[in-house]
Amino acid sequence: MADTIYALSSGRPPAAISVIRISGPSAHAAAQQIAGTLPEARTAAVRELRHPVSGELLDEGLVLRFDAPASSTGEDIVEFQCHGGRAVVDALLAALSGTEGLREARPGEFTRRAFENGRIDLTEAEGLADLIEAETESQRKAALALAEGGLKKQISIWQERVLGLSAQAERAIDYDEDDDALDPSMVRECTALADELQLWLDRPRIEPLKDGVLVVVAGLPNAGKSSLINAISGEERAIVTDIPGTTRDHIEVPLSLGGVPIRLTDTAGLHDTDDVVEAIGVERASKLVEMADVLVWLGDPDVAPAHARLIPVHAKADLGGNAPAGSVSVSTVTSQGIDALLEQIERQARSVLPAEDALSLNRRQAQHVDEARSALTAAGSANDLLLIAEDLRLARTAFDRLTGRAGVEDVFDALFGRFCLGK
Ligand SMILES: Nc1nc2c(ncn2[C@@H]2O[C@H](COP(=O)(O)OP(=O)(O)O)[C@@H](O)[C@H]2O)c(=O)[nH]1
Ligand SMILES: [Mg+2]
User: Fold this and answer.
1) How far apart (Å, rounded) are the C-alpha atoms in residues 155 and 405?
2) Whether residue 220 has its Cβ less than 6 Å from ligand 1
3) Which atom of ligand 1 is nearest to the CA of 240?
């Protein structure tokens, strides 16, 4: 039998109201010792909350009851909504900790139980974690769509289709042993599903929305990169000198451009160097250029690294010189061109973000969708029923990993560890 767990689920006291949750097989019995009788399931009632042993009045509060399996964790739940003073909350938590069979919940444990009891799948748990962390309106919308089971519904449709195909393949294996002819409609359906998954994979990921779009400023040493970052961030964050090669590690400035979250990143100048420390900076800069969602390149566009979203900049425009075609002329001395550059950065960065109302995949989800896609692509081009059946089985397993039906513990630990205590 599972432990019965309890925790303060609302924010740290003092507060107007605090919520204490108890979940598990002894939740009702434990709550009864404190509140006397409990209200009907899914209703609330005002009760005196008393110490279970001494009978001392601790607080008066609202008591809510839920019966398994119709609760958020799938277990019996009682919630106390009490006054949010420190002493009140401490007294109630102490009363619960003294109750036989109860222990304090670990961070994320309520959500983990909801997952283990099949109330939510892994994608919904990921959505909940994102929802609690959401700071902007678009982050909230994306997280809520996930938490409400938007992706789960889509995955179950995919799973149904693969199951149907698997059944068809198994039947063909059982009955048509001598007949090599593959049903062309089955093969077509495998390819069609693979193509559909590819469309999902081609969409922007959720990470830039959550973590900020990575905008990397790169170029040769002394090009004016650090000065530009300082001019944009309005602070002396990056070190500016006239000695080439002084930015050895990268500096990241979080920005919001028209509501688009951005991580503006300074780098060491890209060039060959004998200085060991500087060489490490150059190495990191090359990695950052590769990772960049948007690359702001200070210098000759002809020698810029290949990048899908490149913004060439003609820096130090106050010194004159010819701006190459397509470059934004910028000067940190006169502030010329800074606004135009920011506009370009915002436009390019926005194109990396998922559309406001579209469901987008995170990296973990995309990995499993890609596994399923590759299995279905293989099934669509195989010419042997046994191979097709095996590929379809692989696709099913990939979907099971996606929803957490089959999974690795470390994914669970990493995810549920993101939750605070009491969630
Ligand atoms: N005239 C002029 N000098 C600049 C401008 N931006 C940077 N500099 C100078 O160029 C030198 C190198 O700048 P820095 O930002 O450290 O370049 P980084 O090596 O690319 O980071 C410094 O002496 C800056 O004062 C600019 O817009 N106009
Ligand atoms: Mg620099």
Assistant:
1) 12
2) no
3) 16
The finding on whether 354 has its CB within 6 A of some atom of ligand 1 is: no
Count of the separate structural domains present in the chain = 3
Q: What residues have their beta carbon closer than 5 A to ion ligand 2?
A: 225-226, 247
| pLDDT tens-digit series, residues 172-227 | 888 766 556 678 899 999 999 999 999 999 999 999 998 899 999 999 889 999 99
Q: Which domain holds residue 300?
A: 209-350
* CATH code where residue 309 lies: 3.40.50.300
Mutate to test the pocket of ligand 1, among 217, 220, 222, 229 (most ligand atoms within 8 A of CB): 222
**Nearest of 210, 364, 216, 230 to residue 298 by alpha carbon:** 216
From the CA of 267, how far away is ligand 2's center (Å)? 7
Please give the model's pTM, rounded to 2 decimal places.
0.81
Helical H runs in 213-337?
Answer: 225-233, 276-291
- Asked if 281 and 248 touch (Cβ cutoff 8 Å), the reply is yes
pLDDT tens digits for range 398-416: 999 999 988 667 777 878 8
Please check whether residues 335 and 277 belong to one and the same domain.
Answer: yes
Same domain, 247 and 343: yes
Same domain? For 272 and 311 the reply is yes
CA distance 223 to 300: 10
Does 180 map to a domain? yes
